[in-house]
Amino acid sequence: MSRRPLVAGNWKMFKTRAEASAWCAELRAGLADADGVDLAVCPPATALATVADALAGSGVGVWGQNVHQAESGAFTGELSTAMLLEAGATGSLLGHSERRALFNEHDDLLAEKVVACLAAGLAPVLCIGELEYARDAGSTETILDEQLRKGLALATPAQIAGVTIAYEPVWAIGTGRTATPEMAQEAHAFIRGVLHDLAGEAADDIRILYGGSVKPENAAELMAEPDVDGALVGGASLEAPSLLAIAAATRP
Ligand code: PGA
Questions:
Q1: DSSP state of 172
Q2: What are phi and psi of 91, to 5 degrees?
Q3: What are 132-141's pLDDT values in tens digits?
Q4: From atom 7 of ligand 1, which residue's Cα is the shortest distance away?
Q5: What are the CA-CA distances from residue 158 to residues 134, 144, 198 (Å)?
Q6: Cβ pair 61, 91 in contact under 8 A
Q7: Are 5 and 229 in contact (CB under 8 A)?
Q8: What span, in angstroms and rounded, lies between the C-alpha atoms of 171 and 135?
Q9: Quick one: how far is CA 150 from the chain centroid?
Q10: C-alpha to C-alpha distance for 46 and 61, rounded to whole angstroms
Q11: pLDDT in tens, 42-94
């Protein structure tokens, strides 16, 4: 089994187009550091086309941070898969914990978004993860099982093979608290088990990213775990050299 590492930066609501262009120039200059690792970046929607143009031909993926499940319609403030694709996006995050907590996104809605992306040819990256109280209560696996089964409920096993999963324990996001490599591996192995149940052997090829306070200093030990296939990086992705350093640490 050979899952190529994938490191993605999630800028959240940071960076104007000018700032995004400067970041892309820095990334391009250092791309050799990330040899053997797939890279992607999730700019805010206003910078998507700028980033896609600036990174054209580099092989770096450009993902939306969110997308609506309908093809079009009266949904003020939302963006469709066609709009993301036209702007140059190749994929989209779905169900980031901030979307779940602050914008009421729930598993049934995410199931619709997953298949909308697949139908449109936009690679879905489904984010899952437990809150701190759930981990303390010993319910991490119950939560992950539910988020996966509900979030992938409308996709066929063949379609599930085209999904990337990001495991982000909510208590580790933006807090400086990272899961230990053992905690990450345990959760990732559990997730792969559920994916096996849903998609059979294709689960061995599905990349499961870890997210939550990943930094150049802690990336290598997390990425060394057998079921951790890369990282979804928030804060540390805002500087291109730091994302490249994480990618370098991810290389097998
Ligand atoms: P963080 O964010 O790396 O700043 O913890 C990760 C994420 O929200 O994807």
A1: G
A2: -160, 180
A3: 999 999 999 9
A4: 234
A5: 31, 21, 10
A6: yes
A7: yes
A8: 9
A9: 18
A10: 16
A11: 999 999 999 999 999 999 999 999 999 999 999 999 999 999 999 999 999 99
Q: Which residues pair with 6 in a beta bridge?
A: 38, 230
Q: What are phi and psi of 229, to 5 degrees?
A: -105, 10
pTM to 2 decimals? 0.97
Residues 6+ positions from 58 with CB-CB distance below 8 Å: 27, 28, 31
Contact 58, 28 (CB under 8 A): yes
User: Of 96, 105, 130, 225, which is the active-site residue?
Assistant: 96
Task: Count other Cβ atoms within 10 Å, centred on residue 34.
Answer: 22
Whether the CA torsion 3, 162, 39, 173 is positive or negative: it is negative
Distance from C-alpha of 97 to C-alpha of 101, rounded to nearest angstrom: 6
CA 171 – ligand 1 centroid, Å? 10
**Rounded to whole angstroms, how far apart are CA atoms 9 and 34?**
13
Report angle CA 234, 239, 131 to the nearest 5 degrees.
10
| 218 in contact with ligand 1, CB cutoff 6 A | no
Does ligand 1 come within 6 angstroms of the Cβ of 216? no
Q: How many other C-beta atoms can be found within 10 angstroms of the C-beta atom of residue 184?
A: 25
Going through 75-171 in order, the beta strands assigned E by DSSP cover: 91-94, 123-128, 164-167
176 DSSP assignment: S
146 is catalytic: no
210 CA from centroid of ligand 1 (Å): 10
Pocket test for ligand 1, best of 126, 213, 222 (most atoms within 8 A of CB): 213
> Rounded to the nearest 5 degrees, what angle is found at the Cα of 178, between the Cα atoms of 177 and 179?
125
Query: Which overall architecture, per CATH, does domain 6-250 show?
Result: Alpha-Beta Barrel (3.20)
Max Cα–Cα distance, the chain, nearest Å: 47
